[in-house]
Amino acid sequence: MSIESSTTKSAAPGLREAKKRETRQAISDHATRLFIERGFERTTIAEIADAARVAKKTVTNYFPRKEDLALDHQDAFVASLARHLADREPGESALAALRRAFLAAVAAQDPIAGFAGPSFTRMIAESPALTACLRGLHDQREEALAAALAEATGAAPDAIAPRTAAALIGGVHRVLFRRIQDLTLAGRDNAEIAALLEPEAVQAFALLEPALADYARA
Asked: Where is the HTH tetR-type domain (predicted)?
């Protein structure tokens, strides 16, 4: 086999994967645009397929549920708290690590933390289906954190302590996420929201200190 043919064959899978990523992103971009313009419930999969110039089946192959088209960073959102726990520094508690990560996300105006902009935030707020889906994602994120806390502390998967700690920490994240949404819908820009949210986040996490200051130290 020649070097040229070997190189071509080895490059082909990479080109195919790049093409798939491009197609997926194009579908997602067109879907988001249509959802914002028309509303989530009023936009059909067929309209999204037409806009992206692909078959309807192609859309559903990439995005099995319609909600997946609007909330296409679900995996990163669900895994975020458990990932921040895993990244805690030596001697750092779970609460301290997750507070540090959240404050960094606020400073970066991270969309995963809720800084999605007015159009996207309004799209979610006006859609019962997306609002329900987002609640479910918060639940899944909390469950993932509980599992990670159980593993970090050597507790049983169904032990009450990691589940309670995850509920408390997850609850603060829910409140702050909603706060970002409310401020966005009230017309505040991301920089204003970040400035307002930093001291509020510090106060919210401080309420958990008496119970969780030493929990799950690395």
From this structure: 21-81
